[in-house]
Amino acid sequence: MLAMAADVARDNPERYDNRSFCLGAVGLRKDGVLVTAKNIAAANIVPTHHAEARVVRKLTPDSVVWVARVLRSTGDWTMSRPCTSCQVRMRAAGVKKVVYTIGPDEWGTIQLID
Q1: pTM value?
Q2: Domains in the chain, start-ordered, CATH in brackets?
Q3: SS3 helix, strand, coil % of the chain, rounded to 5?
Q4: Over the stretch 31-61, which tens digit does the pLDDT of each residue have?
Q5: In Å, what is the CA distance from 95 to each residue of 22, 28, 59, 73?
Q6: What is the DSSP-derived secondary structure letter of residue 101?
Q7: Which of 91, 99, 89 has its CA nearest to residue 69?
Q8: Integer Cα distance of 59 and 69 in angstroms
Q9: CA 57 to each of CA 1, 20, 78, 103: distance values in angstroms, whole numbers, following the listed order
């Protein structure tokens, strides 16, 4: 699932901005439906532009989210731990767990709801 999130990030059409990375998120809803979202470019970056905040709008309670940040130059995974605001949004939406990239072939997990 992290590989899928990385593919979503790499497919980001927002190639005109100056960021050195892109983020992608995949959510698995309780009913088995997969949903995806990517971060968007904006003059003023705000948490609602984050991939996690965008994917959570498509989720149901008891979902799981995978988030990947990839470097544009190499496509390698890098740290994508969700910010506090995104964690609050996911917890409020009933997301149980988020798995995120840390580095090449390395990931972490945050249990949001037991």
Answers
A1: 0.89
A2: 2-49+59-109 (3.40.140.10)
A3: 25, 30, 45
A4: 999 999 988 766 566 567 889 999 999 999 9
A5: 22, 10, 8, 32
A6: E
A7: 99
A8: 20
A9: 19, 26, 24, 27
